[in-house]
Every structure is written in C-alpha cells, then in structure tokens.
Amino acid sequence: MIKFFLMVNKQGQTRLSKYYEHVDINKRTLLETEVIKSCLSRSNEQCSFIEYKDFKLIYRQYAALFIVVGVNDTENEMAIYEFIHNFVEVLDEYFSRVESVDELPKICSALEPQQACFSPDSSFKGAASTTPIY
Amino acid sequence: MSDIVEKTLTALPGLFLQNQLGGGPAAAKASFSSRLGSLVRGITALTSKHEEEKLIQQELSSLKATVSAPTTTLKMMKECMVRLIYCEMLGYDASFGYIHAIKLAQQGNLLEKRVGYLAVSLFLHESHELLLLLVNTVVKDLQSTNLVEVCMALTVVSQIFPREMIPAVLPLIEDKLQHSKEIIRRKAVLALYKFHLIAPNQVQHIHIKFRKALCDRDVGVMAASLHIYLRMIKENSSGYKDLTGSFVTILKQVVGGKLPVDFNYHSVPAPWLQIQLLRILGLLGKDDQRTSELMYDVLDESLRRAELNHNVTYAILFECVHTVYSIYPKSELLEKAAKCIGKFVLSPKINLKYLGLKALTYVIQQDPTLALQHQMTIIECLDHPDPIIKRETLELLYRITNAQNVTVIVQKMLEYLHQSKEEYVIVNLVGKIAELAEKYAPDNAWFIQTMNAVFSVGGDVMHPDIPNNFLRLLAEGFDDETEDQQLRLYAVQSYLTLLDMENVFYPQRFLQVMSWVLGEYSYLLDKETPAEVIAKLYKLLMNDSVSSETKTWLIAAVTKLTPQAHSSDTVERLIHEFTISLDTCMRQHAFELKHLHENVELMKSLLPVDRSCEDLAVDASLSFLDGFVAEGLSQGAAPYKPHHQRQEEKLSQEKVLNFEPYGLSFSSSGFTGRQSPAGISLGSDISGNSAETGLKETNSLKLEGIKKLWGKEGYLPKKESKTGNESGALPIPQESIMENVDQAITKKDQSQVLTQSKEEKEKQLLASSLFVGLGSESTVNLLGKADTVSHKFRRKSKIKEAKSGETSHNMTCSSFSSLSNVAYEDDYYLNALHDRGDKELKTFSLNSELLDSESLTELPLVEKFSNCSLSTPSLFADNSMEIFHPPQSIAASVAKESSLASSFLEETTEYIHSNAMEVCNNETISVSSYKIWKDDCLLMVWSVTNKSGLELKSANLEIFPAENFKVTEQPGCCLPIMEAESTKSFQYSVQIEEPFTEGILSGFISYHMMDTHSAQLEFSVNLSLLDFIRPLKISSEDFGKLWLSFANDVKQNVKMSESQAALPSALKTLQQKLRLHIIEIIGNEGLLACQLLPSIPCLLHCRVYADVLALWFRSSCSTLPDYLLYQCQKVMEGS
C-alpha cells in the first residue's frame, strides 16, 4: 500500500505531496523534512530503498528533484521504484521534458490548465491502473 | 502505459472544451495562470524558511479576504482554490477555505466543480465533519447524465467518503457497474473497493458483482477488481479457491502478451498487474496442494518470460520467487526460483542485492541451504557501507540463528545497535536480540551480559515486555534448580559490579530490573551482606537522575532486603529521609517500611526469601468485608450500586420521563423527581430493589472480568505466558560442544588456509561460525514439516548425517559449506566415534544408534536407512511412509465412525445440531466435527476415529486459543489409551468475545503409536456469527423498554423477493435462518429479538412498504447490528 507520494527538490522544499492516508498537517511538514533528510544523506552507491520507522521509502532522483514514495512493508520495492519512473514518463509525455526541467514551477504551469499537477489520483489512476493506489 | 492516460483524458472531452471556452479572454487566462505560477516562482526564489513563511502568510490572508468576499465569482474561487491547495501542501493551514471547496464542488460548472472536488479530496479526511455536506452533491452528480460529472463523483467517492453515509450512494454506485462506458465501471469498482476498506460488511452482499467485474471485457475494470480480491483473499483465502482458475487464465494472457500494447511498460506487458496476480496466487496456493498444482505452469512461464534485463522484470521475478516459495512446493520451480535469487544476490546493482537479501530472508526458513550457497555474499553484505543492506542482512541472520551461531549473530547485531541512533531501529533490534538470547543462550554469563547490553542500549525505548520476560525467566527458572541459582547469582554479581562503576548512567528500566533482581536474589551472595547491597541501593535512591518510578522499585528492593540485614543503619536513615518526602508514593512506601521494620517477625513472614513465583490467594469477592457491609446495611445505608448501573438507571429514568405515558411513570421511579418525602421513600425502595437485581447481574459480570486476571490458581496471564516461555527455557550450557566446534574449525583453518590472505581467513571464520548448524536436513522443512525436535537433538542427528555423507565428501575441498561439515565431522569423531570400523559396521551402528535416540522424526534419515533391513516397519507407520503402513479398509472404518457419531448424536437430540463433517484424516485416524447449538453456548464436538488396527496412546485433542473465542474444554479430553478401531468424542464449548462475521477455530490432535513416535494432525472449522445467535423470548412490553435503552442502531432497506412479499413469510425466513424470535406482528410491522451468546440482546423492528422491507436494529453492542444486518441481507437475497 502506498502511504504518500512526494516530490522534493534538493533544497528540501516540497514541490508536490499527496497522502493516501490522513496525516495531520503539522506532522506532514515534520515527516517531509525527515524523509528528505534521509534521502539526501544517501549516496549513489547506496540502494534506493530506506527503512524508515515502520514503513519503507523508495526514492528516485531526477536532476535536482527527488521523488519519494512511502509504502508499507507488503509492497514490492522494485515495482514501486519502476512505478516512479512510469509516473515521470507520463509527465514527460504530456508536459515537455521533465528531466530537463529541474524545478517544478514549469511542470506546474504546464499542468495548470488541467490542474493535474495536484491530482496524481485522476490522471494517475489511469496511468497506474495496475498499481495499488491506496 | 501513458496511452491509458490519454484515454482517460480524452474520455473527458467536455473538460477540455470547457477549459478552452471557459478560459474566455486571453488576458483573464494569463492572469489566472500567472498567479499560481508567480506564487510558485516566488517561493522557489526564496532562500530561507522564514521568508517562505512570511510570503505564504501574506498570500493566505489575501486569499482569505477574497474567498469570503461576496463579489467573488466561482471562476475566481476556482483560481483561489488552486493557490490554497498549494499553500496547504507546503504545510500551512488553509482550513478557512474548506467550506468554499465544498461549495465550489456543489455549484460550479464542470471545470470549477472538478477543482472543488479535487480540493475537497485533498483538504478533508474521512472523519471530517464538513464531509457530510458533500454527500448530497455526490448523490446528485452520480445521477447526472453527464459522464464527466459521474466520473468526478465516483473519483471523489473512491478517495474519501464518510462511512456512515455509504448506504446513501451504494445502490447508485452498484448500478454503475453495469454502465456501458468502461471508465465509469472502473471507477465504480474503485469506489466499492474504498467501501470495502472502510466498511467491509456493507458491501459483502455484492460479491457476485465483483466476480462480474473480474470477468469484464475491459482490462482496466478487471485490474481494478483485483484490488478488492487481493484484500478479500488476504482475509479469507478459503472462500475464493474456485477463482484460482480465472486468475491463472488472466495471468497467462497477460504474460503471453494478449493485452493491448497500451499496457506495456518498456515492452513488458502490464508488470504491475502481473505482480498483483502473482500475489493473489501466492495467497490462494498457500498450504493447498490442489490449488497450487493449477498454477505451476503459469509460474514457470512467468519465470521464463521475465528474463529480460530490466528493473521491472526483476520486480516480477521477485514476486514470482515469493509466490513459488509460498505455495505448495514443486522442486523444479524451487530450483528455478533459487537460481533467480542467486542472480539477485550476486548482482553488482545495489537495489537488486537488496531484493535478493529480502527474498533470501523469506526463503531461508524453508530452505537453509540457500544461505550456505550464498554465505560469502552475506558476509560481505554484513560489512556493507550501506546501513540498509546491513540491516537487511541482520534480519536474514536473525532467521537462521540457532544455538551454535547465536553468539556471533548477536554480536553482529549489537555492533549495529551501537551505531544506530534511530529509535525505531533500536526498539526493533533490541527486541530481536532479547528473543534470540532467551532462546539460544549458550551459558549464563553470556546471557546476562547480552541482556545487560540490551537494557543499557534499549533503555527506556524498548518494549516493556523485554524486562518483564527477563525477570519472569529469572524468577520461574528452568527445570534445574542449581542451574537457576547460578544464573541468578551471576545476575546479582554482574549488577553489583555495574553499580560500582562511577559516573555511569543506566536507563531507568535497567535500574528497575537491577533493583528487582537485587531485592530478590541478593541472599545468594556469600561475600557481600544484604546491608552492603542496601547501601548501594540507598546511594542510587539519593541520586537525582533516578526517576520517581525507579525509586519505588528501589525502595521495594530495600524493603525485601531489610529482614535479611542485621545492621539497619541505612534503613533507618532511609526511613527518616523518605517519610518526609514530597512524593506521596515514596512517603507511603517509607511508612510501610517503617512499620514493618518495627515488627521483624511479621516482616519475615510477609517477605519470604525466593518466593516471587508463588501465587497469592486473592479473595476476589472481598468476603472479609461482608461483616462490615452487613453492619452498614443494618444501619440503613443504601446498597452499593456499580457506576454503570447508576448511570443506566439515571438514563432510563430520563427516558421514562420523556417517552412513557404519564400513568405508567407513577408506578415506576419517576416519582423521585418530585422530592416529596413519600416519593423519596418510594423511590429509594424501588431503586433498592433494582439494585439488588442489578447486583446479581453485575456480580456475574464482574466475575467474568476478573476471571481473566485472577483465578483459583492466582494470576492467570502469568501462567499463560509461562507456557509460552517454555521455548525460552532452553539455554542449557553447551559450552563444551561449542568449544569443540570452534577448536575444530580453527584447526581446520590453520591447516588449510595458510596461503590465503588474513582478511579472507577472517571472513571464512565468520562464515563457518555463522552458518554452523544449517545442515542439509532442509528437505524436511521443504515438505512443510515443522521441526519439533529440540536443538540439542537436532544437532546430534545432523552430525550423523554429515558423517554418513562422508564417502562423497572431499576433504581437501576448500568450499566453506563443506568446511563447516568437516568441522562437524571432526567434532563428531572427537566426541563420539573413536572406533571407526569399516563402512558396513559404521552404518550398522549408526542405524541402531538412530533408533535408540528416537530421531525417527528426521525424515531424510529415515529414508536413508529405510532400505536397511534392521528397521522394523511398525516404527515408521504414519511417518508419511506409506510403504510400511499396513493397509486398512478405510471404507469400513468410515462406516463405523459414522455409526458411532450418530450414536453420540442420539444422546444430544434435545438440541439442534449440524451434520458431522470430516475435518482431517490420515491412515490412522480421522476426525470429524459437528456443532450443537445449545441454549447457553455453542458445543463443538470432534469425534476421533482410530482406523488403524493398533492401539493409540495418549491421544489428545487441543484447540488453539483464538483471538475472538473462549473455548472451554468439557471433561474427558485426554485419553490415555485409544483402542483399535474405536471412536471417541471430544467436546468443547465455545463462546465469543466480540461479534464477527466468520471466524476459524483450529486445533490439532496428537497421539502416540506404540510407544515410540507421536504424530500430530491439524484441522480447522469455520464458525459463523449465526452459531452464536439464539432467540430471545421477551414480551412486547419488554421490547419497548429495551428498545429505548439501547443506543446503537442501524437501519437499512432490503428488497424482498416475490416469494416473501408478505411480512409474515419474510419474518418466517428470518426466524428459521437466523433464529430470531418473533415477538409480535402488528399490521405491516414486526418485532423480533435475539441474543448473542452469552447475553447481548439485539432487537429488530421491521416494516414493509410495497416490496421493501425496512429493517431497524438496536442493540447494546455497537457492532452487532451491522453484522446481523449483513446476515439478514444474505438471507433475504438468498431465498
């Protein structure tokens, strides 16, 4: 089960977040800071999966942008790892080149007409119809 | 994959159209897009968090003004909403906008509505009060003719919906399952999945429709339904075995590339769908040979197809391996899966290595030899720079720990523990170390030292069970009393040394453990006197860093030691110090100590030495207070009423005043409100009476509550955990053997690895000490056999095995697996076999020894020697070796069994009972069960038939304790001897503790054949809620009273089929199928009542309109109505 989906830049600023389980707004900020910290502390030689508290973080880096997915331990890490890439490919297909844009504003403004930027669920549910969203 | 998105989006043409047109003048559009854009850009440009906060607060206040201004148009509102979402996403509270989001969803045009829904789903959570306001909008949109609106409503429902409003939309969503557009069907399935997650019993009646969704011609709909199935199968796999074929066919089609190309991801067909299906198959095939056989082919195909070198195929392979090892084993598949794991583990890619370790950890319990194959990789991973890999490796090692490698593994774990700082990791690891130490400790010193490390590192974050278990272990001890005393003495000594160290701070929990142990077992010391120990404890007591909770532990220890101490200066000082303490608890303890100290004799009898394990007899009924109570009553005191009864009375009084006719209230306690003297006396009289009846009730209630904690034998949970701890009671010192092994290893190493580098050597040493004990007996485990032999025992037989395989064994081989075997061999020679005879003789002696040592349960050994004419066939009977088993005429025995069963049934004909059903059997015995629905409980009867011609000894049937059930054994369940071809019955009465829909009760039967070997057979029985429902025979008047006093109610309309169109026939169905009692039928209304055993009443009020039956349940239990409703629906639909 996916618990949350985060896009964070290298400075540790959240660019996009979506929680699939209710988390209190104050706790979100705290959680995000800790998640980013643990992702930034990892090098390329280390694996892309982090055990964090009682769930797992799976992250992938695209230029200065980190995409982090929090899942519980029933999930297949590699499947989520590829799922992140799938998501990026979908964004890429629709809104110019994502990898070349290292900051989200452009993606956001590109997404703006549809507001899909904030709704991984609707555009995303189509994309990921084969992946558990909850 | 991305094409699907395209489909999704093009399915919403209206949306884009709206956007194009609705965008209106270019200027407006530009300003719209630029405002969010500029906000985002502004935030990105900022460098400090403080500046960001300032900017957003500014933004929020301007937004607040805009949204609440009456002039704001919906279009502007939409724009505001987007910015609000962004602000909240960054962690700033935007709750003032929530209500506007709901309004926007309600009032806007398509695009605005969409933004509104989106904002709602992001802002609110399931139990948010504003969410109720959305329900109407959703209902309206679900009925809309515009597909886009329906889509939006379904999307929001599948994300967030109030649980209690589900009935309002459920029928609408069910209808959508038949919609012609696949996107609507898919979203409807996802919405139902959401309902299943939050309120499973509300959607239970539409399971048939899920099946339809699974067979939908659209792949998306089918994939969506898999979510529901995965979940349902996880909960209860036995109910969906019939779908195995469908899942296999679907997977076959997916793997074979029959899906549209859109579903390909990097030319792999629908990888996530495959993973989902593999998971479902794994759950279905678990412990089920017949179901597993159906999937062997497709698993083989998946393994074969997924050979492409891409991450996502590795994900599929991983899932395949997992499934192959979950289901009933097939050697070919296992071989292939093992190869896959090898590929993972050896991969240079770190992510794959991680997956490999994870797979190994899962697989290792079934097949320890795999660990041997990869031992060098595991050693490398143990020193890996990545802590995550390290941790995963430790997890793996934890699974293969045995008595021989425990020291090395625990040492590695402690090393990791000292490095890590994260609390969660510490808690987790500390628990594991404590568990291993208790299970496999080689000697006292090691055990105490390891636990010391655990307590000092785990400190106050660890699970409280750890110190509790440790103390219990010390107190209860093992079989050997001198051994126990040594352990305790060692603990006392080690704590005294620890306390002697200056300037060291120990966690509070550790200090508590120390003080308890010192208080109890200081008497074992011969050098130090109790007074010296007291002095040390006193020093701690005066320490400021010690918490007040720990201080009470300390003072308790001092109190225990005081009677043993001769001089009591310190104690007097302590009493003096703490009788004026500000902490009331401490003060009380000090006063207790003071008074006891004055009467040494009493103190000695009160605090005997080493009696911590003896149970205290507690008079739970407080009968010694009877005289006091009687005196009080005789002086006119009111009888005691428990709190809840007082409350109930108060409530019912209120209700009487509110609802009952005026005349009635006169006779009841309603009068008390008047405050006239007569009224008071009348009222108190009545309440006195009711108190008496109430007292009776509460007495029984109370006893029930108490039973759990205190019983005749004393504190019960302690007893229970005692049995649970028996596995931990094994650390018998095996030092000598261990040493020998080590010596042998070092010797071997020295002679063999001179040429190898030092580092290499170290690794080998580590490997041999880590993987010691993982012999080749694994085949036993593969067959799903639980190894029940004790550790010591297992090792012995393994040594033999290593020896028996000696001929094929290359002594000069440098592979490490063989190294450890060689070590064994040496060890074995050293210890047991000096007389190496010729080959034949050896086999002979080995075999006879084998029979002596009763290691017959070791299947491979048995097989190995089965060709040996020395073994007597009868010994192997029922050891799953059919060749030796004397064939029985099973038909005859079955016939006998049924006749015997029926004879038993005759005895119990006064009660309704179910038909006997066979639950398990083998060549020797068969067990069948049936239920007897007695008035006060459910009686489960298991009748066991001995089909063999042999006598069975100490046949015993045991039921596993189940979470929800209270199972009480009826007398006569352990039979010393069971004659040949006879049947015996075991009876258990079952009660439930919480309502549920379906539960499983499982147990096992064990017996001895001849004198030597024992066998065990497991079985399980499904129990449904209906087994515990009994009619409740009350009058209409009582019904009315009870109805008002119950707070939990559930209402639901059910469609009646034509056959039961009239109320009486419908009620008849309920009476027959659910055992409800029909109290009265008045016109188109009916009153029914039932109770859930032991005594939870539930009332049902029915009313008929046309062909709809309105059910209204009320009960004192909050969950019971839901479950009953579900049963009713099932019954009404079924008939």
TrEMBL record, chain A:
Stored InterPro entries: AP_complex_ssu, AP_mu_sigma_su, Longin-like_dom_sf
Chief subcellular location: membrane
GO cellular component, one term: cytoplasm
Membrane topology qualifier: Peripheral membrane protein
Keywords: Membrane, Protein transport, Transport
Biological processes per GO annotation: protein transport
Similarity section: Belongs to the adaptor complexes small subunit family.
Its job: Component of the adaptor protein complex 4 (AP-4). Adaptor protein complexes are vesicle coat components involved both in vesicle formation and cargo selection. They control the vesicular transport of proteins in different trafficking pathways. AP-4 forms a non clathrin-associated coat on vesicles departing the trans-Golgi network (TGN) and may be involved in the targeting of proteins from the trans-Golgi network (TGN) to the endosomal-lysosomal system.
Name the record gives this protein: AP-4 complex subunit sigma-1
Automatic annotation (TrEMBL), chain B:
All residue ranges annotated as the AP-4 complex subunit epsilon-1 C-terminal domain in the record: 1030-1133
Primary subcellular site in the record, as a coarse category: Golgi
Any single Pfam family the record assigns to this protein: AP4E_app_platf
GO biological process: intracellular protein transport; vesicle-mediated transport
Subcellular location: Golgi apparatus, trans-Golgi network membrane
Region (Disordered): 717-736
Annotated InterPro entries: Adaptor_Complx_Large_Subunit, AP4_complex_esu, AP4E1_C, ARM-like, ARM-type_fold, Clathrin/coatomer_adapt-like_N
Membrane topology: Peripheral membrane protein
Gene Ontology cellular component annotations, sorted alphabetically: AP-4 adaptor complex; trans-Golgi network
Domain of life: Eukaryota
Keywords (A to Z) from UniProt: Golgi apparatus, Membrane, Phosphoprotein, Protein transport, Transport
Stated role: Component of the adaptor protein complex 4 (AP-4). Adaptor protein complexes are vesicle coat components involved both in vesicle formation and cargo selection. They control the vesicular transport of proteins in different trafficking pathways. AP-4 forms a non clathrin-associated coat on vesicles departing the trans-Golgi network (TGN) and may be involved in the targeting of proteins from the trans-Golgi network (TGN) to the endosomal-lysosomal system.
Protein family (similarity comment): Belongs to the adaptor complexes large subunit family.
Subunit architecture: Adaptor protein complex 4 (AP-4) is a heterotetramer composed of two large adaptins, a medium adaptin and a small adaptin.
Full protein name: AP-4 complex subunit epsilon
Organism whose genome encodes this protein: Piliocolobus tephrosceles
UniProt lineage: Eukaryota, Metazoa, Chordata, Craniata, Vertebrata
Gene encoding the protein: AP4E1
